[in-house]
Amino acid sequence: MGTDKKEHIINTAIELFAVKGFEGTSIRDLAAAAGVNIAMINYYFGSKEKLFESMVEEKAAYTRIELTEIMSNTSLNAAGKIDRIVEGFVERLFRNRHFHRVIHQELMLGDRQAMQDMIVNILYPNSQLIKQILLDGIASGEFNKVDVELTVATLIGTINYLLQSKKFCLKILDETETYVPYEDEEFKTRVKTHLKAVLHIHLVHQPK
Amino acid sequence: MGTDKKEHIINTAIELFAVKGFEGTSIRDLAAAAGVNIAMINYYFGSKEKLFESMVEEKAAYTRIELTEIMSNTSLNAAGKIDRIVEGFVERLFRNRHFHRVIHQELMLGDRQAMQDMIVNILYPNSQLIKQILLDGIASGEFNKVDVELTVATLIGTINYLLQSKKFCLKILDETETYVPYEDEEFKTRVKTHLKAVLHIHLVHQPK
DNA sequence: TGAAACTAAACAAACGTTTAATTAAAACAC
DNA sequence: GTGTTTTAATTAAACGTTTGTTTAGTTTCA
């Protein structure tokens, strides 16, 4: 039936877009990879652009969850929330790295206003959530008066940098081509540990 | 004559690629924007792909300079070198943000092996240079034994995050569309101050 | 006069999309 | 349940554009 096949096309599209880009992927490539007729993509989604929008709509909601509940967890202090945020972000972004790469490709481009706005509206709540935790921590006196916007940039930017290109990531890690860091628990732990260390000392160290 | 016009085409290409992407920019768009005949691009560069490679070759060397001399400056201690690195990177990446965005777009994509390798070989020396300063600082006892590779990721990743999309950057800064942060000295200073603060306390604070 | 710079036009191939026809599934009457 | 009608799903083929590239001819200037 329709729905599963639509989702199959979307998942195939994410894989292809992540590797070849949106413009670089023809609907013939996509149809062949998904094992469907060329016309089915327009039949289901209307156009290539609308397929992209459907893809974003479908995956965005799924990706957004589980963060707000950290905020509402009153048993955690601000530093504890930051730790949970770091863990949640590394897990989520590493797992959804293909989708993440696709929307960041499109975010980089200046044309296609509507798509860009769409993507900004997906990513913005994430950064806002972290910002709010920082502001709360500062208000309660638990955190130093740091530059909250740029601290958010440091957290997410570090992860994005590692996700941007597997080849480049392997190069700076001095690893072989066969190693897949994003699926290695040890590497994920390493990233979490680094980010928690950086943020913790930046936020809670009291300068004399 | 030829050379200035070649460079003019390359500069126009950077502007267009940064906004529309490599695949999204037709050589007709490019020829029109540069004010030259369509055939001139293939006449000068051979093909669209070779134009890209020429662009990278031309701009890469120019972008690479001025960093190694920081390394060789023996009057600076490790912390001083990091400060200079931060200042140099923010200035350079903000100034060359269009070129920077173009090569990061291409770096994200998995196909076009040769181009990817080319770009990795451009970016790698930068990260290696920072890494070496960190290693030297650790060896001399001036720095803590931090995760050097991920500390590099935090430095460059933070800047990249801000450069990725003007629209998104403005959103997290809560600024209006007309503001151009990358050309604002105040914002550049803000980014430098944040990065120096984060790195300094991460690297030189002695945990009890 | 001859080589380099430049142009307009044409090229085949690939693109996203649409059409028209066929098959499969569901809905309905009896 | 069986036969009929309607709707949805699927297909191969064709559509008109746009793509990167090339050709063949013209201008420019030393």
TrEMBL record, chains A, B:
The organism's place on the tree of life at top rank: Bacteria
Q: Extract the DNA-binding region annotation as residue ranges.
A: 26-45
Q: Which Pfam families match?
A: TetR_C_4, TetR_N
- Could you identify this protein by its name? TetR/AcrR family transcriptional regulator
> Could you tell me which residue ranges the HTH tetR-type domain spans?
3-63
Keywords associated with the record: DNA-binding
* Tagged with keyword Disulfide bond: no
Please provide, alphabetically and separated by semicolons, the GO molecular function terms listed in this UniProt record. DNA binding
